[in-house]
Amino acid sequence: MKLTVEIICPHCGAEAFLKREPVYEGFKKTGEELSCSACGGQFSSEEEVPFKFLAAAPQIFTEADRSKPVKVFDEGENRNICRYCANYVVNPFMQFCSCHKKEVQATDSCSQFAPAGEKPKDPLGL
């Protein structure tokens, strides 16, 4: 069960909302004043507030109703795209294939795919 901001007020007996107003001392917040939004009845602490509990929502669907996960690519099938090619060059203005000397997109593919090697952890060698 979950707590809500709804209460059943012991002062007026109504189902109402809990009203929280900050209490300041100068410009510093020192606490909160808790009251009933219907009658204005004050509560001294959070423990004293009679919150209205919500019952858990009924489960309409079960795990048996879920569809199986869709697997679009086989293992490693999506690795033959320009994004993973050794000839793929990226700069702030365009994506370029150094093999074909033309602009490409990361998801393009071609028959001359060459897998890129592992990138060095420190490319500047520092």
In a nutshell, what does this entry contain?
This protein has 126 residues and is an all-beta fold. The chain has strands at residues 2-8, 15-25, 28-36, 42-43, 51-54, 88-90, 95-97, 102-103.
Question: Any overview of this molecule?
Answer:
By secondary structure, this protein is mostly beta strands. The protein has no helices and eight strands. It has two domains: 53 residues, no CATH class; 36 residues, no CATH class. Helices cover 0% and strands 33% of the residues. It has a five-stranded antiparallel β-sheet, with no helix packed on it. The protein has a three-stranded antiparallel β-sheet with strand order 6-7-8, with no helix packed on it. The mean pLDDT is 84.
Which value, in Å, is the CA radius of gyration? 31 Å
Q: What share of the residues lie within helices?
A: under 10%
Instruction: Give the number of helices.
Output: 0
Structural class: mainly beta
**What is the count of distinct domains?**
2
The whole-number mean of residue pLDDT values reads 84
Summarize the topology.
Elements: E1 2-8, E2 15-25, E3 28-36, E4 42-43, E5 51-54, E6 88-90, E7 95-97, E8 102-103
Antiparallel strand pairs: 1-2, 1-5, 2-3, 3-4, 6-7, 7-8
